[in-house]
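ASSEMBLY PREDICTION REQUEST
Request ID: AP-0331
Submitted by: J.K., bench scientist
Number of chains: two
Total residues: 239
Priority: normal
Notes: Please return the full assembly, not individual chains.
Input sequences:
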Amino acid sequence: MSGTGSRSVLQPDPFLNELTSMFECSTEKGSVWVTFKRSSMKSKAARNKMQSAGQSIEYRCLVRATDSKKTISTSLSAKDYQKFQASYATVLKAHMNSLKKRERKDRKKTAEPEKKQVSSKSESSKKQAAPTSKSS
Amino acid sequence: MVYIDSWDEFVERSVQLFRADPHSSRYVMKYRHCDGKLVLKVTDNRVCLKFKTDQAQDAKKMEKLNNIFFTLMVRGPDADISEASGKEQNEQPPAKKGRGRRQ
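STATUS: Completed
Returned structure:
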């Protein structure tokens, strides 16, 4: 990916806001890329130092997004990734809607509200479904 | 670059690829609203697995894969992903479905 355009490191929530506007600004043309990568967020030298010192290294999930004009990134820890995961799913669901939906059954979605056609014969048809709990 | 047709195969091989090299592997999603196309890629810079689709139902499936990768990347390659992948582990019972002891 070219280095043109800005790069910013953001907190998870601002990242999601920026990601949202990326989607919004690329509906007519262009793409949005999102990349996940496991990262210690440290240089190899720093990692080696820590390892030889017997220190445990914390890993995060690095998330990057780009629309070719700008690149944003954030990182998630074990504490906050589940919350991000849920919000991220919401953003995708809201914006990735140009994909084809498969209509399985011909469900005519008419403008009629659900009219419960209650027949005049109000039979309280209690289907005597004997609770057959087949226990072996 | 290999485009995999089967979603399940893509997921399985992607997870395997990541677990084999958690440091080099990355998971990429590319979405083009104008074309209605979604492409997923998992690579360790040697092997490249891809999945492409224009179906909305695949976006739903992708959500689970996103969760799987969040878990793996934060918690590590040995993390338990059964929850992230959904408790749809249909363990077919060894017994026959029919109730009848045939001996």
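REVIEWER COMMENTS: The longest helix of chain B spans residues 56-75.
SIGN-OFF: pending second reviewer
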